[in-house]
Automatic annotation (TrEMBL):
Pfam (any one): LRR_1
Natural source organism: Cucumis melo var. makuwa
Topological type in the membrane: Single-pass type I membrane protein
CC annotations in GO: plasma membrane
UniProt keyword annotations, A-Z: Cell membrane, Glycoprotein, Kinase, Leucine-rich repeat, Membrane, Receptor, Repeat, Signal, Transferase, Transmembrane, Transmembrane helix
This protein's name: Inactive LRR receptor-like serine/threonine-protein kinase BIR2
Signal sequence interval, chain numbering: 1-23
Major subcellular site: membrane
Subcellular localization(s) per the UniProt record: Cell membrane
Length: 271
């Protein structure tokens, strides 16, 4: 009886204390590599110290800025609006329990690592308002739980990967204000059935991107030409009209003067 109680007590105690002393080698690899790839000119990450990165979580508490823990693992990373520079480390994929990644509103450069595909629990990806380049990795389609992909205001190029349309849980998709080109995949621009729809605001601000739900490119081009044409045309017409009016007026006054001169000469007696 006593032995049994001790055993239960022992199990409870180890369950309670195990997360305190454990650190996950994957989370450590993730954070150490990320802190190396980021530049932090304003020292926002001053408590991302070597010892804190080696043991970032205490159960549900985190020792490092921007991280949220769940049962001793990092499950949320929010480092938005911290003037961070540098690149996104592909080893971020070692944070295998990550559900939300928000690196928005910084000055991050370089590509979005395709290794993010290994974050199989990822539901929220917000990399908006940075200076990220290259293509949107089509491998993101493997993150089956993705609800949010927000990549607006970057320098992303290439086409929007068709495979992202496979993400049936997507409720927010924003790639506006990039340098994307080519057709919008109908699996994203014109989603079928009950899937949440994305309107033009998700796609606008990409010069060479076209297709529904954006307004047709040709018509947009034509209307601009038409406006310029109407402006130039009406300017020219009014110029011609006023020129003609001046000419006619000059002719009339000239004729009047001739007539007047004639009258004067008739009135003048001949000497
Ligand atoms: C981190 O990820 C790399 C590449 O996916 C893998 O080789 C490594 O085993 C992972 N874990 C650690 C602790 O480095
Ligand atoms: C990434 O982290 C792992 C484990 O901490 C380390 O062995 C590896 O050298 C790191 N890679 C880079 C590029 O820093
Ligand atoms: C880490 O720093 C942030 C501010 O940058 C602070 O809010 C947080 O409490 C610090 N965390 C710990 C565990 O000291
Ligand atoms: C971003 O941070 C700056 C100060 O560093 C602050 O003034 C600004 O309001 C923040 N923006 C947002 C959207 O939180
Ligand atoms: C992504 O982050 C930006 C700014 O940091 C925020 O304005 C935006 O609402 C976020 N996107 C989503 C879908 O929450
Ligand atoms: C959208 O898809 C439906 C079929 O699912 C199709 O009938 C319709 O023509 C499509 N609209 C556009 C603008 O492509
Ligand atoms: C487009 O969708 C967004 C939400 O995704 C919404 O806030 C906005 O009002 C919509 N715009 C139009 C014109 O329907």
């Amino acid at each position: 009886m006593v032995g049994c109680t001790l055993l239960i007590f022992g199990l409870l105690a180890s369950a309670a204390f195990f997360p305190l002393s454990s650190s996950d080698p994957n989370d450590e690899a993730c954070l150490v590599n990320l802190s190396q790839s980021l530049e932090d000119p304003t020292n926002s990450l001053h408590n991302w110290t070597q010892s804190n990165l080696a043991n970032p979580c205490n159960g549900f508490n985190s020792y490092i800025h921007g991280a949220t823990c769940n049962s001793g693992r990092i499950y949320k990373l929010s480092l938005n609006n911290l003037s961070l520079r540098g690149t996104i480390s592909p080893f971020l994929a070692n944070c295998t329990n990550l559900q939300a990644l928000d690196l928005s509103s910084n000055f991050l450069t370089g590509p979005i690592p395709s290794d993010l595909q290994y974050l199989v629990n990822l539901a929220v990806l917000n990399l908006s308002a940075n200076r990220l380049t290259d293509q949107i990795p089509q491998e993101l389609a493997f993150c089956a739980y993705l609800n949010v992909i927000d990549l607006h205001d970057n320098l992303l190029t290439g086409q929007i990967p068709q495979r992202l349309g496979l993400l049936v849980r997507l409720s927010t998709f924003d790639v506006s204000n990039n340098r994307l080109s080519g057709p919008i995949p109908s699996t994203l621009g014109n989603r079928s059935g009950n899937l949440p729809k994305f309107n033009a605001s998700s796609f606008e601000g990409n010069k060479d991107l076209y297709g529904y739900p954006l307004a047709p490119l040709k018509n947009r081009g034509l209307s601009v030409i038409a406006i310029v044409g109407i402006g130039l045309g009406s300017g020219l017409v009014s110029l011609v009209l006023s020129f003609t009016a001046v000419c006619i007026w000059l002719k009339i006054t000239e004729r009047k003067m001739v007539v007047e001169e004639g009258k004067i000469s008739q009135l003048m007696p001949d000497y």
